[in-house]
Amino acid sequence: MLYHDGVSVKVGDKIRLWNGCQGIVVCSIDTNEFTPTYPKADWYYLESGIIIKADNGSFFHYVEADEDFERIERVDAKAA
């Protein structure tokens, strides 16, 4: 998955989902990137896309980047 500026979405990216809601990409089914906290076994059934854990604890699954996505910071995936 790509942000609208053409940069690849990576596990660990801090992003703004919409005004007042931020989160961290915790796995990417598209690139087969998962963390020990969010393992492939828990998410593979979705088949594609990314999982974002919002600051409020909610999880969101996207199969393509939303027009409001804005990368805030690229961090080490191990921190996700």
Your description of this structure?
This protein has 80 residues and is mainly β. It is 5% helix and 32% strand. The chain contains 1 helix and 5 strands, in the order ββαβββ. The protein has a 5-stranded antiparallel sheet with strand order 4-3-2-1-5, with no helix packed on it.
Throw out a few tags for this protein.
five-stranded antiparallel β-sheet; 80 residues; 1 helix; mainly beta; globular
Concise account of the structure shown:
With 80 residues, the chain is mainly β.
Looking at the structure, what is the overall shape? globular
Q: What structural category characterises the helix and strand content?
A: mainly beta
Name the helix and strand elements from N-terminus to C-terminus, one letter apiece.
EEHEEE
Q: In percent terms, what proportion of residues is strand?
A: 25-35%
Count of DSSP helices?
1
User: What is the makeup of the main sheet?
Assistant: 5 strands, antiparallel
* Beta strand count: 5
Model regions low in confidence, pLDDT < 50 over at least 5 residues: none
Spatial order of strands in the largest sheet:
4-3-2-1-5
Cα gyration radius (Å)? 11 Å
Count of folded domains: 1
**How is the quaternary structure best described?**
single chain
Please describe the topology of this protein.
Elements: E1 14-18, E2 21-28, H1 40-43, E3 50-54, E4 59-62, E5 70-73
Antiparallel strand pairs: 1-2, 1-5, 2-3, 3-4
